[in-house]
Design a protein that fits this description.
The protein is of the alpha/beta class. About 40% of the residues lie in helices and about 20% in strands. Helix 6 packs across helix 7 and helix 9 packs antiparallel against helix 10. Bound molecules: adenosine monophosphate (AMP).
């Protein structure tokens, strides 16, 4: 596996890959790998001739009060895991490499990026889009692999890729979960053992909401059910529990099965999860 620290070196490798007509499969990450990340690397390995991963904790997607400084980092372990998954090129730039002095450009998608996570974390998706756009320009992949775990991020990036004519296909991989349903997340590392036990309530709430919907419940019933399940667990502070149209993230249309989304704070971790109701 090659390790690239500079955008120029990464770009040169990718230019050669295009010249050799290799299909480039790319997984953008913030590192601290868990099985969720590894599942994306495996999907990329199965689809591409050349697999690239980026490991970059993007400061632009953290608000000032958020956990940028304490965000989990495990660069050496990540590189070992990437190598073991058969990754060809890892791109692990410094912040200085990615942020030209005086950088001001962000990419604003609009309404889709302003609701739910966008409302809870103003500017978050502008920062995500700015850096993913930058990575797409450096890596020039044919396919990128994203996790359903961050469903709104997927929708926002689809919009950006379409609107700005990026020549990349987006493939979405299912959420990898612990046996009790908790979605794997780098931020789970913040949970102590009691908080960890409580955190599975997010998935239980999603399942209860899906059951309510499938039994003929309305959007309001479904959201109420999710809230009720969370409020029965002490120490879990609900941010939102919503049933939305999976594309627009607005109220679900008649007949369509909704995407259920939940966000809650458990100890110092802010956790998100989602579940697509079967149609
Ligand atoms: P992150 O390092 O948190 O930015 O995540 C990198 C990629 O991994 C994103 O596309 C995430 O959606 C995806 N991801 C994170 N957690 C999971 C999970 N539990 N299952 C599947 N994909 C995930």
């Amino acid at each position: 596996m090659e390790l690239k620290r500079s955008a120029a070196d990464m770009r040169a490798t990718m230019v050669r890959a295009h010249r050799d007509e290799l299909t480039i499969a790319f997984v953008p990450t913030m590192g601290a790998f868990h099985e969720g990340h590894l599942s994306l690397l495996r999907a990329a390995r199965a689809a591409g001739d050349l697999v690239a991963v980026s490991i970059y904790v993007n400061p632009l997607q953290f608000e000032a009060r958020e956990d940028l400084a304490s965000y989990p980092r495990a660069p050496e372990r990540d590189l070992e895991l990437a190598r073991a998954e058969g990754v060809d090129v890892a791109f692990a730039p410094s912040v200085d490499e990615m942020q030209p002095p005086g950088r001001t450009t962000v990419v604003t998608v609009g309404r889709l990026a302003e609701v739910l996570e966008g409302a809870a974390r103003p500017g978050h998706f502008d920062g995500v889009c700015a850096v993913v756009a930058q990575l797409l320009n450096i890596v020039t992949p044919h396919i990128i692999f994203l996790g359903q775990k961050d469903a709104q991020q997927v929708a926002v990036l689809r919009r950006m890729v379409t609107d700005l004519s990026f020549a990349t296909e987006i493939r979405v991989c299912p959420t990898v979960r612990e046996p009790d349903g908790l979605a794997l997340s780098s931020r789970n590392a913040y949970l102590d053992s009691e908080e960890r036990a409580r955190a599975s309530v997010l998935f239980r709430a999603l399942e209860a909401g899906a059951k309510r919907w499938t039994a003929g419940g309305s959007v309001a019933d479904t959201e109420h059910e999710m809230r009720a399940v969370v409020s029965a667990t002490a120490g879990v502070l609900l941010d939102y529990a919503r049933a939305v149209d999976p594309e627009s993230f607005e109220a679900p249309g008649k007949g369509g099965a909704p995407l259920l989304l939940i966000a809650a704070r458990v100890g110092r971790a802010r956790l998100i999860d989602n579940l697509q109701v079967e149609g």
